[in-house]
Specification:
Layout: E1 5-12, H1 31-41, E2 46-50, H2 51-57, E3 67-71, H3 82-85, E4 90-95, H4 100-107, E5 111-115, H5 122-131, E6 136-139, H6 143-151, E7 157-162, E8 191-198, E9 201-207
The protein binds NADPH dihydro-nicotinamide-adenine-dinucleotide phosphate and the ligand Nc1nc(O)c(N)c(N[C@@H]2O[C@H](COP(=O)(O)O)[C@@H](O)[C@H]2O)n1.
NADPH dihydro-nicotinamide-adenine-dinucleotide phosphate (NDP) is lined by residues 10-11, 18-19, 23, 25, 28, 49-53, 56-57, 71-74, 76, 119-120, 122, 140-145, 148, 173, 177.
């Protein structure tokens, strides 16, 4: 079974942060980049975010004919979150760690798929998404989710908008968080495909040389 084609898109400050140390929703993209992202989202069958992003940003990701997917092992998605309050489809990927009473409430508002283990099993999730007809998946963070998709070599391409802002701070989330590698030899090496100036920032397109199948 082929996995969906996967693009990670993110907006970073010049120092690689995706929010400040307060970890709240912050506009890092320029006006021009938000216009680009709006068009980009329409080209994907699915948009995926982690529960950290849902709790911090309460995103809408409201694009017609696109499935919104949340990685949420413990079923923490707020029942009044924008994703669960509108009419557009949402899939919440949970694990056996999610309390049953909570799952029932989420199921009233979204499709729920349950996986074994303590974190959502990406391989099996991607299989299920492909079976559901998701051929192109846009991953929009945050840093922990980006790490999972890169570490496992599931991402095919990466697009980052590098803004003219600097947030600093060791506790501010970065484009890729998670465990990280210990040695340079374990680094995830990408190939630069394109560079564009956009507003006061730069748009960079990268390709992963050997994305993994399922
Ligand atoms: N500038 C930008 O472009 C963007 C910025 N952001 C910012 O990023 C920050 C949020 O990032 P972060 O806190 O890292 O949260 P994430 O959105 O990356 O969500 C991470 C959580 O997802 C759950 N999860 C379940 N299964 C997996 C899996 N297989 N792999 C990875 N995660 C899994 C885990 O929680 P659990 O165990 O409970 O399931 C995990 O802690 C916010 O500050 C937000 O504003 C976010 C997106 C874009
Ligand atoms: N491209 C981009 N630029 C920024 O500056 C951002 N803060 C984000 N954040 C991502 O977009 C989601 C919000 O989407 P809606 O506007 O609510 O539809 C947010 O959750 C991040 O994934 N992206």
């Amino acid at each position: 079974m082929k996995k969906p084609y996967i693009l990670i898109n993110s907006a970073l400050t010049l120092d690689g942060k995706i929010s400040t140390k307060k970890r709240k929703k912050i506009k890092i993209s320029s006006k021009e980049d938000f216009i680009r992202v709006k068009k980009l989202r329409k080209r994907f069958d699915g948009i995926l975010v982690g529960i950290g992003t849902v709790l911090a940003d309460d995103p809408k990701l409201n694009v017609e004919n696109t499935l919104r997917i949340v990685l949420d092992s413990r079923g923490r998605i707020p029942l009044d979150s924008n994703l669960l309050e509108d009419e557009l489809p949402v899939l919440v990927a949970i694990t056996e760690k999610a309390p049953l009473s909570r799952v029932k409430r989420i199921e009233e508002k979204a499709e729920v798929i349950k996986f074994k283990g303590s974190k959502v099993d990406l391989k099996n999730l991607l299989k299920k998404l492909r079976e559901k007809g998701i051929k192109k998946l846009l991953v929009e963070g945050g840093g922990t989710v980006n790490w999972s998709f890169l570490k496992n070599r599931y991402a095919d391409e990466v697009c980052v908008y590098i803004s003219n802002l600097i947030f600093g701070g060791k506790d501010a989330p970065t484009f890729v968080d998670g465990e990280g590698v210990k040695e340079k030899q374990d680094a995830i090496e990408l190939k630069l495909k394109n560079v564009e100036k956009l507003g006061e920032g730069l748009l960079l397109f990268w390709e992963l040389p050997h994305p993994k199948g399922l």
